[in-house]
Design brief:
By secondary structure, the protein is of the alpha/beta class. It has a seven-stranded parallel β-sheet with strand order 3-2-1-4-5-6-7, sandwiched between helices.
Length: 257
């Protein structure tokens, strides 16, 4: 990989939102490790604890074992991205532990179902703090700190087009799209590419059986998206072969209608 190398000789990727072994973030972290990256990853257990799926005990260690199985160094960092100081601290810890970051993959999210009439101001503000503001601050830190070879830097954001019945999540993800696409232009002097990926409905343990049946019915390939589907696309975007894809919002949902 022709990128800024860590102390181990491998480039460093930072993946946020790696709180569960069945999540998209974990699949991305493992896939990048298999492709030759050292991987730092962040998680925030209090978020998972208040969601229906609950916190997964030992998830950070289990993800580390998966990454290590590919010969990669790894670093897990607990980070509350609702805190505006957290992105800078996260980069400080990753640089101290693994080295300079060459790829930033943002898989973190605040995601609480509510619509126009029942969303609270507190929930709305938290969604924007985590999904939009933290992503901007992470991208800003990346841009301020990146010293790699021109053309090797990568930014990928996980997004969604779900809005109806999920107002604060969808609205804040829409803001994330614009922030990420702005980065493709504003970080052009560094040769950093920036893309947003919408993986569509993905089976990470939150779907009911009825939801799965509905998604299968409306998907030409007659199956549910998996975390590995998203991970393979992001792996490509982070590779040298993915350099020419830039400033895009990519749909990767199996042709879901």
């Amino acid at each position: 990989m022709n990128a800024e190398e860590s102390r181990s000789g491998r480039p460093v990727a930072l993946v946020t939102g790696v709180g569960r072994t069945v999540g998209i973030g974990a699949a991305i972290a493992e896939r990048l490790a298999a492709s030759g990256w050292d991987v730092a990853y962040s998680y925030w257990t209090p978020y998972d604890s208040r969601m229906a799926w609950g916190a997964e005990e030992g998830a950070a260690e289990a993800v580390g074992a998966l990454i290590g199985g590919h010969g990669a160094r790894h670093l897990a960092v607990s980070a509350d991205l609702a805190d505006p100081e957290a992105p800078a601290r996260l980069f400080d810890q990753v640089e101290a532990g693994l080295g300079k970051v060459s790829a930033l993959v943002m898989s973190h999210a605040e995601s609480v179902d509510s619509g126009l009439l029942d969303t609270t101001v507190e929930s709305f503000d938290r969604h924007f703090a985590v999904n939009a503001r933290a992503s901007w601050l992470l991208i800003r830190e990346f841009g301020l700190r990146f010293t790699g070879e021109f053309g090797t830097g990568r930014i990928v954001a996980l997004t969604s087009d779900h809005t109806a019945g999920n107002l604060p999540y969808g609205a804040s993800k829409g803001a994330l799209d614009r922030i990420t696409r702005a980065a493709a232009r504003e970080l052009a002097h560094l040769g950093v590419t920036a893309n947003a990926v919408d993986p569509g409905p993905t089976d990470t343990g939150w779907m009911s059986e009825q939801h799965k049946a509905d998604m299968i019915e409306y998907t030409p390939l007659a199956r549910i998206g998996t975390p590995r589907d998203a991970a393979h696309l992001i792996d490509f975007l982070c590779s040298p072969q993915g350099q020419w894809v830039n400033g895009q919002l990519l749909q990767s949902s199996g042709g879901l209608k």
